[in-house]
Amino acid sequence: MSDQADGLRQLVQARSGATALAEPPEPCRSLEAPVGTRSLVLTSGKGGVGTSNLALNLAIALGEYGRRVVLVDADLGLANIDLLCGLAPSSDLGDVLAGDCSLADAVMAGPGEIRIVPGAHGMRTLLDVLGDGPARLVAELAELEAGADFLLVDAGSGLGPGIATLAAAAEQVVIVTTPEPTSVADAHAVIGRFRRLAGPSRLRTVINQAVSSAEASDVQSRLSASSRQFLGTVVTGLGHVRSDPHVPLAVRMRRPFVLAYPGSIASRGVRRLARDLIEEHQPRSLRPGFFSALAARWALSRVAR
Known about the structure:
By secondary structure, the chain is of the alpha/beta class. The chain has 14 helices and 8 strands. α1 (2-16) runs antiparallel to α11 (246-253), α2 crosses α13 and α9 (181-193) packs parallel to α10 (213-231).
């Protein structure tokens, strides 16, 4: 594995020179201080579009701009945030549920000073965690959220069980797709599932692994038009990240690409997403916190049964 990674690294560097290793440019203007905690659920229509990798690197990029970030690995069946950044969690949400440790013990210090809540393998959804966990867990999660400027939730496939409830509890839902027709079709299906959440900047899309900015713009335009015409839903593009050979190389290295190759095309794209999120004017929300809202929705679903 080491030889393979070394060979790929040499090939990529030969093609791109030292640009990918360069330090990122300083922000061109000051960014306003954050107000409250913004919660984003990142999801997709199908696997393999890079949602987890995007969530991790976006979290780190937000941290580079001085934001306090908590990243929750809620793709519980395929939790892999820890693998992408070379961490080996000693405990996870499953251990918290079993009473073997507290949430504070399970939270990991991630790269770039972000905090990571590792998923519990074997649990179907984050709702299962809240439903089966001790009463104090919701309070502990809410306290963790309150100490962050951004809460990012990697939710896996938007067509999976319980994801609609996660999405409803979040301030924004970011649907990740690639330009591939099957991925775009699946993203459209997810948008249809979440169409009742539509509101100003509530549903967002990110075009990942685009060959060019023009391709990403075309995909975004088609998604927005079809959502408006056939679903009656407004979907706003958050941006795009171009295809970059440094991304799979960083995965093999088990390092986030924004740290391994800060000057690469993908890293610059992710930082642009982070800056756009930070610079968006977001009035102070009266919405409850993500975990409080999620627990309330879980309780209502139990009563309705």
